[in-house]
Amino acid sequence: KQIDWAKARELWSLQPVKKPDAAQLKSSPWARTDIDRFVADRWKAQKLQPVADAPKSQLLRRAYFDLIGLPPTAEQLQAFLADDSPQAFTKVIDELLASPRFGERWGRHWLDVARYADSTGRAWNAPFTYAWRYRDWVIAALNRDLPYDEFLAQQLAGDLLPATTAVQRREQLIATGFLAIGAHDLQNLSFEQFKFDVIDDQI
Q: How crowded is residue 84: how many other Cβ atoms within 10 Å of its Cβ?
């Protein structure tokens, strides 16, 4: 089958970015923001209705599990249920984002991508004695809200980036642990093959 390049260029993701006009949308009692109004407009076209808002107890559990991976305590639940202020949920979210548990929960997703482990795995399971330093760096980076571009740059080239202090220099070197982490087969391989396996894993 021949590719229709003109048709392919009509794909939504290839179109120039435009700021849509929310004022043209009909109001919806469900919508609280302009984004909600766009969602509600699409629902209407699909003849769908929104479900009711979650009860406060359920909302709190969802927030806790999503942000720190743990349920709220009975005391935290009671405090939230007793707080009738409009900022009650915002306050909870801010507290969860400031918690060290946030970086531990969401760092796990990045560590999976980086193929983090405390050993090499495969045929000869040699320990990565200091792998925990990289793991802790990832958690701390998320907890201090390190911008994503810096998060990536330090892991790929932390040893080449300028540093103003010895502590910053050390942190950037630890970040490059990303390049060493991963399952590497050290047995029955020539050095050249091992080297290229590591490069392949890094890419």
A: 7
The half-sphere exposure of 61 on its side-chain side, counting CA atoms within 13 A, is 6
Residues 6+ apart with CB under 8 A from 88: 80
Rounded Cα–Cα distance for residues 184 and 120 (Å): 5
Q: What's the rounded Cα separation, in Å, for the pair 25 and 115?
A: 45
What would the pLDDT profile of 156-181 be if each residue is shown by its tens digit?
Answer: 999 999 999 999 999 999 999 999 88
DSSP assignment of 66-112 equals: HHHSSPPPHHHHHHHHH--STTHHHHHHHHHHHSHHHHHHHHHHHHH
Give first-to-last CA distance, the chain, whole Å.
33
For residue 138 the two structure tokens come to 């990832």
Q: What is the pLDDT of residue 22?
A: 82
Q: The tokens of 132 are what?
A: 């925990």
Low pLDDT (below 70) residues in the chain: 186-189
What is the DSSP secondary structure assignment for residue 180, as one 8-state letter?
A: T
- 174: Cβ contacts below 8 Å, ≥ 6 apart: 133, 134, 137, 158
Q: What is the pLDDT of residues 107-132, one digit of tens each?
A: 999 999 998 988 877 777 778 889 99
Q: What is the DSSP string of 20-68?
A: --GGGSPP-TT--SHHHHHHHHHHHHHT--PPPPPPHHHHHHHHHHHHH
